[in-house]
Amino acid sequence: MNRQKSFENSLPTLYIVATPIGNLNEMTYRAIQTLKEVDYIAAEDTRNTIKLLNHFDISTKLVSHHEHNLMIAIPKIINDLKSGLNIALVSDAGYPAISDPGYELVKEAIREGFNVVPVSGANACLDALVVSGIAPQPFMFYGFLDRNDKNKKKELEKLKNYRETIVFYEAPHRIKKTLKLMLEILGNRSIALCRELTKKHEEINRGTIEDILSVIDDMKGEMVIVVEGNQEENVEDIKTFDQSIEEHVEEYIENGLTTKDAIKAVAKERGLSKNIVYNEYHKK
């Protein structure tokens, strides 16, 4: 058990500091003060963070902490905490550890017995969730789906029966393909596609997946997708599968069935029409 009373001890502290996701006016007074007072700031990209520090007249030393240097950066930061330093962790925008570097460092700092303290601020997931018009609780934050289409399909297959609202992040060059896969696997659900949150060109698109696909071609910028949970009444009776439809058919074929019979068996087991399984299998 780890019991932390953040402000009732003199232990060195790792501050997890949220920074604006677009609008600099969302930088909190506490975040500014924290960044001024710590011994140094560990940043995902020092080139981006220096612009933020200059804007708020913060002169604290910067060091690099990103996904490619964790093996070097984490031991260095832990040693500095052991030396009595207080350190702030920031990402390029939003909360560190939320689809950004940070989790591994937080886990190690906790293991070593130091304070790990959050400094609240902007978060794209919550911003999108509360304006989506889709039930905000319960919800599940998923973040980025796998970039590989085959793996992405597997992930969506596992998620399709969740009743909870699900929040995803996606890059603009992958958004159209991702929405098409969601339509194929999840069905034409209600979603909210939010882009450029808190920035000048903020845009929130609410409708079905088909609605959003009809206007997606002219959209740019980092995107958050809020997806309605499965609303089918008999969702508890629907089986979930760790494998894709193609892999499921292949498994039956390896066990001696013909392709036709394998498709028939998979359709029956999954509660799908044979045509859907046939089309999915022969797309490979």
Automatic annotation (TrEMBL):
Cellular location(s): Cytoplasm
Cytoplasm keyword on record: yes
Limits of the Tetrapyrrole methylase domain: 13-212
EC number from the UniProt entry: 2.1.1.198
InterPro entries: 4pyrrol_Mease, 4pyrrol_Methylase_sf, 4pyrrole_Mease_sub1, 4pyrrole_Mease_sub2, rRNA_ssu_MeTfrase_I, SAM_MeTrfase_RsmI_CS
Domain of life: Bacteria
GO biological process, one term: methylation
GO molecular function: methyltransferase activity
Regions crossing the membrane: none
Reactions this protein catalyses: cytidine(1402) in 16S rRNA + S-adenosyl-L-methionine = 2'-O-methylcytidine(1402) in 16S rRNA + S-adenosyl-L-homocysteine + H(+)
UniProt KW keywords: Cytoplasm, Methyltransferase, rRNA processing, S-adenosyl-L-methionine, Transferase
Alphabetized Pfam families for the sequence: TP_methylase (PF00590)
PROSITE patterns: RSMI (PS01296)
Main location: cytoplasm
Keyword Cell membrane: no
Functional note: Catalyzes the 2'-O-methylation of the ribose of cytidine 1402 (C1402) in 16S rRNA.
Family assignment from sequence similarity: Belongs to the methyltransferase superfamily. RsmI family.
Record PANTHER family: RIBOSOMAL RNA SMALL SUBUNIT METHYLTRANSFERASE I
Descriptive protein name: Ribosomal RNA small subunit methyltransferase I
Natural source organism: Massilimicrobiota timonensis
Name of encoding gene: rsmI
